[in-house]
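Hi all, long-time lurker, first post. I run a small reading group and we've been trying to get comfortable going from sequence to structure in the token notation. Rather than ask abstract questions, I figured I'd post a concrete chain and ask someone more experienced to write out its structure so we can walk through it together at our next meeting. Sequence below, copied exactly:
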Amino acid sequence: MSAADRDTGPRANGQAGAPSDMYAAFLRRVRIRRRLIFACQALALLGFVLVWEIAPRAHWVNPMLTSYPSAIWPAFVEMVGAEDNNILFHTWITLVETVVGFAISMALGVAVAMALWWWEFLYRVVDPFMVVANALPKIALVPIFYIWLGDEASIYAMAVAIALFITILMVYSGFRETDPNKIKLIRTFGASKAQILRKVVLPGNVPVMIAALKINVGLALVGVIVGEFQAAKAGLGHLIIYGSQIFAMNLVMTAITILAVISTVMYLIILYVENRVMQHRQ
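-- Answer (accepted) --
Happy to help. Here is the structure in token form:
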């Protein structure tokens, strides 16, 4: 085909605009769907808050047991300026414990998964023990950790215990499901096992590790709060237990709301990291 023939093709005749219009319509549908989902989420949250506010005021439920959403902000402001049970201090303690437990469980989980991928025999030996450890109710370990490690270290141990085994199982499963054709290809070029791990297995399982990060955010926070229920002298879990003992439900609901904010912010940070990493991979 000559250059003149190519110039008289669909693009030269203006027919190339049809796919572009279709793509623009697709993008509009995606944006509309995203906005609709966001609107439904906002309405669901608003409905929950309204029911929570109306139910105790209408005495559908006992207001002493549920408090009110409108009472959370005044309670927060009051506790910010309090010398005892300062809410910012307790929030900082819980946040530090969560981030440390989250980081330890993730780093240790990936390291153990790498070791199990490297030594298949080791995986065969420890597999049943990991399954049992993952199924074990971790709350049963709280008194043991408290006796062994003390009131502070037991909280970190609890966060790691809850998040570690699911991380190992998720990441190792991803390692095992790595595309075998890619591994065979790099082996034909004389790659060592360490090079296979570094060049194929780890890069190929970035989405799996990000998924493990998302799960560990909630699990680490759960572990910290469970540990604080039992042993802590500070933290949001300590505030929840203290508030429930004296029937100060404003205090309890404020602490729970802050926990929801912490988990949401941490999840959004991981989501941002995921978007950046996936853009880089493309």
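A couple of things your group might point at:
Confidence is low (pLDDT under 50) at residues 1-17.
Residues 37 and 43 are 10 Å apart (CA to CA).
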